[in-house]
Amino acid sequence: MFIALYTLILHLYVNLKQSATIYPIALIITLSLFFGFWILDKIALKKVLSPYKNGIVLAKHKLKFTEAGIETEAENKKSFTGWILVREIIDSKDYIYIMIDKSIGYIVPKRLFSSHSDIDTFLKQINQYKERKQ
């Protein structure tokens, strides 16, 4: 799509360059088309790529952490991720992120724990599981 617009801009520039009155109008139309298609493309991609609110990705999950890996259960879905697939465990202010890829992971809210010592115990345990499988 962008190649076609670039070709159109180049064609208009070469053919309309002699006319001082048509050139600004052609440039405005071409730029309007370019940015219009660009914005439409971004909106369409965002709409197509965003997950459903109650779909598999954003649904509430029950997580069970075992020595073998992470078992997940959601409505109509069960899955298992072995510790060997865990790339990184991130401890942030409000969440624990267990990343299995650059943008895919499990999010564990810290508010689910009753104390800071429970959070520390959990982090220590999952880090041990991860290190054993590496």
Helix and strand layout, with pairings?
Elements: H1 2-16, H2 22-49, E1 62-65, E2 69-74, E3 77-82, E4 88-91, E5 95-99, E6 105-109, H3 116-133
Antiparallel strand pairs: 1-2, 2-3, 4-5, 5-6
Tell me about this structure.
This protein is an alpha+beta fold and 134 residues long. The chain folds into 2 domains: 2-49; 62-133. It contains 3 helices and 6 strands, in the order ααββββββα. The protein has helices at 2-16, 22-49, 116-133; strands at residues 62-65, 69-74, 77-82, 88-91, 95-99, 105-109. The strands form 2 sheets. A 3-stranded antiparallel beta sheet has the order 1-2-3. A 3-stranded antiparallel beta sheet has the order 4-5-6, with no helix packed on it. A hairpin with a 3-residue loop joins strand 4 (88-91) and strand 5 (95-99). Helix 1 runs antiparallel to helix 2 (22-49). The longest helix is centred in the N-terminal third of the chain and has 28 residues, at 22-49. It starts with a helix and ends with a helix. The model has no long low-confidence stretch (mean pLDDT 81).
